[in-house]
């Protein structure tokens, strides 16, 4: 969990980069299972080897965590000079500790001495116990370890547990029962009928291992597919993914535990293995076919119960995630978990226990690597999520059919069961339309689907929605709203680009936008004629293709003046030596998993290093997506890096931080000249900014006011990304935050303002204050104040299209 997050900082969050780097972890597990499984059979006291492995995990994992925290820049340099060879760095840092981890299960199996020959029973118990620990670890990371200790502190805590395990293993190794003979451990099995059958049984055991490797590929393929398919029922918060992953692991644990006592008594282990693997595929496909309103109703009911008991919005939302996990991933993983003990029973019945278990673990993990890469890089982009699930379930049925046709002692009931499950799968695959998930997304979010793409790493959708008399397009990534082209979005996104260009101290010539989204921010750069270099970094190709569905972005995706680079924004800054007068950021909300990387002091230092003299960074500051404590943390991060910072209000729900290393000088003549450029003036007039005075009226405060507001708030850093793990945001959190920020407003330090500019500024500021006052009164349910303040705003600036949009009046333009 920690390394996945660190790798996103080292190699970028592109799905290819992260998937390939994480495969190093699984490669390490596979190598460790194979190597130390062989070693375990030649050691008299396996518990001592286990203690050494845990100690090695503790040391190597801490070293890797510390080095990964500093590996981003070296990796970028190595990749620029060595190409693909640079990947040896993350492979080594992540793979080496995983080698020691992979050796623990076969060594523990050997330490149990395959008690009475019950390999399946012992293996099931150890597998279940290990996975229970994994569930606890997965949940502890977002709910406790990172919020309390940070990334490196969490790594030290995990290492401390490894050390405790090593000590406990050393104590256990002193018992006489810990010493085992060197000779091979022959396992009695009803599958073997005579000595002459040993070779045949071993070949069948090897077949079982290879089939389980294929099943491992299917299982991780399911996980890749589910990670995208389930998002419309959850969110992009780290809590959501942790709960779904924990549900996945719980299914494996419970499945293995349920058959632990039955596996040795089974007279048809091959048949049971086949039925479980095929059944998992059929249940996965059937669940997708059966998804509908029932899951939304169940989520709402359990969330209501959880809130009534705990009065915690976070607990209530986690209850929603749990329903999604149980409804989509639990049953298939329950069956997959139950298959593991049967493979041990079949494959380790005539050889060394450590070697046999290590082989099962190694090949199953290798199959998982292949399955995850094939699913993420080929199946999902080529076939879509629904058809990908059909292919994976089909592979599972093929594995089952091979098992019942080549295995020993398979009964007619098992053969018939596998054939029936295969027929059911075909029926479910035919009955489930390819657009099933798109339809569910439309039902869940409301609106007409105009664009939908299931690509590498995320689903991208555009829905045509309405609010009162207004109709607009809205972008959904991973089922979560990422803005749209309504008036509110047009206003803050155009200001996101044009405001810092207009007020900049020096004449700007180059600009970088991190995050294309709807394309409105990037498109606004096209309206500023003085720019000679315009760059946008966007992670998802699907977002680039979807941008043509949004109005107000001036066709940015097709405009040759815009250089769109499909890569992670942080990685763009690490790899490119380009410098900019403006870097403006509009990433997803900071509460989304991994996005805090673009709101941290470490990122701002990187961005600052890519600025030209006098350049600025403009950071989007959404207010409704976090509590006030998190808003303060975000501001604290920004002003910790930029000694000259200011805050501007770009829309009722959004603000803008502008900062640089040199003082901001608001020169009236320069601002008026830049504002008057035809493209700039028209773009801003369309969103209610009709003069330089109206632009300056969005000023809130300078760095001193921001420092006063944040007080002792801890900034967001790469090591302590607390904003990502903050409590869920209540509906009542927005209004107090906005009020407190509005209270900071002071006079902008304008130089050379004439009477006309001052009059424009005063009128626009009074109108904006009245409009915000009306909006806050509406949130409080105070209709009389709302009407009075709105009338004042309309009297002062009745032609403002932004105000008229809220008031439900047609635009005079």
Automatic annotation (TrEMBL):
The keyword Acyltransferase does not apply. Keywords: Membrane, Polyamine biosynthesis, Transmembrane, Transmembrane helix. The chain crosses the membrane at residues 15-37, 49-72, 84-105, 126-146, 152-172, 207-226, 238-260, 272-292, 321-344, 356-379, 385-404, 416-433. InterPro entries: SAM-dependent_MTases_sf. The keyword Ribonucleoprotein does not apply. This is Spermidine synthase.
């Amino acid at each position: 969990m920690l390394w996945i997050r660190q790798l996103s900082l080292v190699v970028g969050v592109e799905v290819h980069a992260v998937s390939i780097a994480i495969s190093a972890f699984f490669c390490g597990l596979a190598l460790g299972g194979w190597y130390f499984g062989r070693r375990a059979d030649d050691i008299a006291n396996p518990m001592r080897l286990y203690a050494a492995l845990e100690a090695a995990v503790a040391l190597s994992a801490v070293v890797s965590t510390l080095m990964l925290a500093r590996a981003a820049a070296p990796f970028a340099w190595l990749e620029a000079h060595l190409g693909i060879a640079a990947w040896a760095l993350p492979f080594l840092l992540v793979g080496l500790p995983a080698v020691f981890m992979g050796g623990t299960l076969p060594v523990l199996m050997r330490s149990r001495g395959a008690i009475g020959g019950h390999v399946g029973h012992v293996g099931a118990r150890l597998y279940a116990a290990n996975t229970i620990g994994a569930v606890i670890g997965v949940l502890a990371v977002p709910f406790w370890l990172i919020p309390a200790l940070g990334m490196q502190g969490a790594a030290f805590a995990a290492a401390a547990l490894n050390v405790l395990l090593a000590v406990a293993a050393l104590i256990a190794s002193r018992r006489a029962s810990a010493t085992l003979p060197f000779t091979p451990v022959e396992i009695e099995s009803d599958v073997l009928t005579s000595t002459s059958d040993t070779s045949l049984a071993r070949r069948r055991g090897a077949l079982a291992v290879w089939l389980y490797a294929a099943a491992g590929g299917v299982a991780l393929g399911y996980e890749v597919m589910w990670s995208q398919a389930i998002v419309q029922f959850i969110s992009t918060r780290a809590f959501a993914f942790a709960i779904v992953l924990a549900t996945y692991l719980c299914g494996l644990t419970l499945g293995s535990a349920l058959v632990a006592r039955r596996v040795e008594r089974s007279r048809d282990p091959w048949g049971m293995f086949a039925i479980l693997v095929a059944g998992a595929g059929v249940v996965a496909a059937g669940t997708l076919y059966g998804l509908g309103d029932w899951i939304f109703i169940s989520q709402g009911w359990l969330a209501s119960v959880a809130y009534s008991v705990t009065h915690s919005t976070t607990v209530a939302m986690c209850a929603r995630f749990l329903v999604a996990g149980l409804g989509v991933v639990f049953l298939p993983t329950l069956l997959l978990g139950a298959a593991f003990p049967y493979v041990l029973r079949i494959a380790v019945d005539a050889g060394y226990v450590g070697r046999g278990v290590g082989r099962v673990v190694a090949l199953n993990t290798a199959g998982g690597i292949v399955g995850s890469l094939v699913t993420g890089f080929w199946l999902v982009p080529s076939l879509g999520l629904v058809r990908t699930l059909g292919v994976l379930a089909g592979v599972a049925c093929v594995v089952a059919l091979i098992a019942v046709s080549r295995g020993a002692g398979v009964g007619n009931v098992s053969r018939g069961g596998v054939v029936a499950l295969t027929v059911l799968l075909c029926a479910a695959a035919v009955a489930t339309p390819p657009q099933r998930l798109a339809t569910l997304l439309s039902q869940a979010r409301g609106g007409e689907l105009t664009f939908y793409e299931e690509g590498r790493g995320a689903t991208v959708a555009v829905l045509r929605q309405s609010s009162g008399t207004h109709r607009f397009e809205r972008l959904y990534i991973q089922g979560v709203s990422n803005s749209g082209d309504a008036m509110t979005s047009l206003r803050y996104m155009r200001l996101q680009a044009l405001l810092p260009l207009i007020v900049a101290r020096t004449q700007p010539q180059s600009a970088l936008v991190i995050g294309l989204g709807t394309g409105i921010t990037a498109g606004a750069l096209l309206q500023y004629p003085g720019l000679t270099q315009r760059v946008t970094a966007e992670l998802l190709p699907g977002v680039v293709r979807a941008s043509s569905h949004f109005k107000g972005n001036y066709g940015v995706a097709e405009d040759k003046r815009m250089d769109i680079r499909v890569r992670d924004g942080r990685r763009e800054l690490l790899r490119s030596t380009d410098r900019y007068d403006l870097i403006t950021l509009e990433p997803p909300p900071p509460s989304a998993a991994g996005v805090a990387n673009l709101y941290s002091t470490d990122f701002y230092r990187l961005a600052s290093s890519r600025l030209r003299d006098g350049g600025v960074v403009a950071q989007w500051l959404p207010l409704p997506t976090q509590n006030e404590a998190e808003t303060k943390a975000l501001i604290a991060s920004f002003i910790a890096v930029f000694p000259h910072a200011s805050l501007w209000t770009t829309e009722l729900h959004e603000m803008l931080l502008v900062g640089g290393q040199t003082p901001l000088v608001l020169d009236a003549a320069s601002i008026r000249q830049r504002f008057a450029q035809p493209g700039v003036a028209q773009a801003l007039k369309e969103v209610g900014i009709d003069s330089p005075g109206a632009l300056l009226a969005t000023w809130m405060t300078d760095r001193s006011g921001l420092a006063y507001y944040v007080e002792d708030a801890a900034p967001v850093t790469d090591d302590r990304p607390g904003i990502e793990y903050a409590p869920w945001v209540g509906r009542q959190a927005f209004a107090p935050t906005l009020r407190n920020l509005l209270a900071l407003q002071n006079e902008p330090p304008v130089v050379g303002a004439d009477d006309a500019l001052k009059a424009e500024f005063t009128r626009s500021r009074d109108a904006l204050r009245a409009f915000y006052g009306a909006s806050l009164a509406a949130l409080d349910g105070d209709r009389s104040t709302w009407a009075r303040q709105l009338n004042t705003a309309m009297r002062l600036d009745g032609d403002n299209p932004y105000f008229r949009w809220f008031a439900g009046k047609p635009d005079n333009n």
